[in-house]
């Protein structure tokens, strides 16, 4: 071997494309890590963070489909976590965000103070209506036996985007319920495109969603009467 000769990672066009895809995913994960840290420090406005994080998550999801493609010539990776372990990527913030598949603004659902303190206002009424619609849509989907990742993940993301604790009296219970919904979001996000929830999981998820809806509805002033 000539030590001065350039050593190629690939020998075919397919191998070259595979390495290009892996390099793209590596850069996306690294960028996501820096974005998460910037958001935590308050260096990125909330609205801009949400847009950029959503874009990075979508791009990562698209590239992951190429990385896990059976036609890939180089070693395939079953998940983003496996990819990060293989390349010794110490990016915990990006790993957490990829496991959820939604921005932190959806995970924690920050809402306007007016929606909390004055639920009878226009902003509060709109938030209540939107949250109710999101809950009902998800529950109906589960009752109609929709179990695929691409069917349920967007609906659950919409619920978490609007659902938030609405009073200190129920704060602990609301946190527990929300944590359970986040667990389902992570589980759905980790499913492959061909996987679905089984019967037991579907019933359990419906139970948890109905519990969350009941808890949220009962926390509204006069039980949701605007």
TrEMBL record:
<dbReference type="InterPro" id="IPR017899">
    <property type="entry name" value="VPS28_C"/>
</dbReference>
<dbReference type="GO" id="GO:0031902">
    <property type="term" value="C:late endosome membrane"/>
</dbReference>
<keyword id="KW-0653">Protein transport</keyword>
<feature type="domain" description="VPS28 C-terminal">
    <location>
        <begin position="123"/>
        <end position="221"/>
    </location>
</feature>
<dbReference type="Pfam" id="PF03997">
    <property type="entry name" value="VPS28"/>
</dbReference>
<dbReference type="InterPro" id="IPR037206">
    <property type="entry name" value="VPS28_C_sf"/>
</dbReference>
<dbReference type="InterPro" id="IPR037202">
    <property type="entry name" value="ESCRT_assembly_dom"/>
</dbReference>
<protein>
    <recommendedName>
        <fullName>Vacuolar protein sorting-associated protein 28</fullName>
    </recommendedName>
</protein>
<feature type="domain" description="VPS28 N-terminal">
    <location>
        <begin position="1"/>
        <end position="108"/>
    </location>
</feature>
<comment type="function">
    <text>Component of the ESCRT-I complex (endosomal sorting complex required for transport I), a regulator of vesicular trafficking process.</text>
</comment>
<keyword id="KW-0967">Endosome</keyword>
<dbReference type="GO" id="GO:0043328">
    <property type="term" value="P:protein transport to vacuole involved in ubiquitin-dependent protein catabolic process via the multivesicular body sorting pathway"/>
</dbReference>
<dbReference type="GO" id="GO:0044877">
    <property type="term" value="F:protein-containing complex binding"/>
</dbReference>
<keyword id="KW-0813">Transport</keyword>
<dbReference type="InterPro" id="IPR007143">
    <property type="entry name" value="Vps28"/>
</dbReference>
<dbReference type="InterPro" id="IPR017898">
    <property type="entry name" value="VPS28_N"/>
</dbReference>
<dbReference type="InterPro" id="IPR038358">
    <property type="entry name" value="VPS28_N_sf"/>
</dbReference>
<dbReference type="GO" id="GO:0000813">
    <property type="term" value="C:ESCRT I complex"/>
</dbReference>
<comment type="similarity">
    <text>Belongs to the VPS28 family.</text>
</comment>
């Amino acid at each position: 071997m000539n030590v001065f000769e350039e050593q190629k990672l690939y020998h075919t066009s397919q191998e070259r494309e595979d390495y290009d895809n892996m390099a793209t995913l590596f850069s996306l994960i690294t960028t996501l890590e820096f974005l998460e840290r910037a958001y935590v420090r308050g260096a990125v406005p909330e609205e801009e963070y949400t847009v950029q994080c959503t874009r990075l998550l979508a791009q990562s999801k698209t590239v992951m489909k190429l990385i896990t493609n059976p036609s890939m010539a180089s070693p395939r990776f079953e998940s983003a976590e496996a990819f990060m372990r293989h390349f010794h990527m110490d990016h915990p913030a990006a790993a957490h965000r990829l496991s959820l598949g939604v921005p932190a603004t959806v995970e924690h659902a920050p809402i306007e103070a007016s929606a909390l303190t004055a639920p009878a206002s226009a902003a509060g009424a709109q938030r209540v209506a939107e949250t109710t619609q999101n809950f009902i849509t998800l529950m109906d989907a589960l009752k109609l036996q929709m179990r695929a990742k691409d069917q349920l993940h967007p609906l659950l993301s919409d619920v978490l985007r609007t659902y938030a604790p609405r009073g200190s009296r129920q704060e602990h219970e609301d946190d527990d319920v929300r944590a359970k919904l986040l667990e389902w979001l992570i589980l759905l996000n980790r499913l492959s495109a061909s996987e679905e929830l089984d019967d037991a999981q579907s019933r359990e998820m419906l139970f948890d969603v109905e519990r969350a809806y009941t808890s949220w509805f009962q926390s509204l002033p006069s039980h949701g009467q605007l």
